[in-house]
Amino acid sequence: MNKQSQLVIHALQEIVSNPRHDEKMIASYFAASYQQQVDGKCLDYPGFVSHMALLKTLTRQMEVVLLSVVAERDTVFTHHRVKVEKCDNTKSEIEVMARFTLESDRIIRCDELTRLVSGNKQDHDLGSRS
């Protein structure tokens, strides 16, 4: 597994799977110029930080389950699922296909498609809710 793959995997584990919102941790993996396209919605770095903060208030736990990771040069593709337990004890599972672009050991872009696999239909936008 190459360095870029490891960086993306660690970012997913330490930011998404961590129940605590940690802006310093986010900054250690994501560039200030970060851009994310998710399900037709565009988030810049501050928007992404706000998105993660909101998710942490809505959820008790999120677990990233990696299904596939492929890397070439500055690009890492992941196919993963996020198992979500919300504060109201409801559960959802989201399938994610993502292409991460890296530069200078930071994630600078993510193009992502998500799909609600199970759970409340209202959770279909958890990948982009802000």
Characterization of the model:
- The protein has 3 helices and 6 strands.
- The chain has 130 residues and is α+β, with helices and mostly antiparallel strands.
- The chain has one domain: Nuclear Transport Factor 2, Chain: A, CATH 3.10.450.50.
- It has a 6-stranded mixed β-sheet.
Question: Which helices and strands appear, and what pairs or packs with what?
Answer:
Layout: H1 3-16, H2 23-29, E1 30-38, E2 41-44, H3 45-58, E3 59-72, E4 75-86, E5 91-103, E6 106-118
Parallel strand pairs: 1-6
Antiparallel strand pairs: 1-2, 3-4, 4-5, 5-6
Could you tell me the mean pLDDT? 97
Q: Which runs of at least 5 residues are low in confidence (pLDDT < 50)? A: none
- What integer value in Å does the Rg equal? 14 Å
Largest sheet: 6 strands, mixed
Give descriptors for this structure.
3 helices; six-stranded mixed beta sheet; alpha+beta; NTF2-like_dom_sf; Nuclear transport factor 2 family protein; 130 residues
Short summary of the structure?
The protein is of the alpha+beta class. The protein is 27% helix and 50% strand. The chain has one domain (3-125): Nuclear Transport Factor 2, Chain: A, CATH 3.10.450.50.
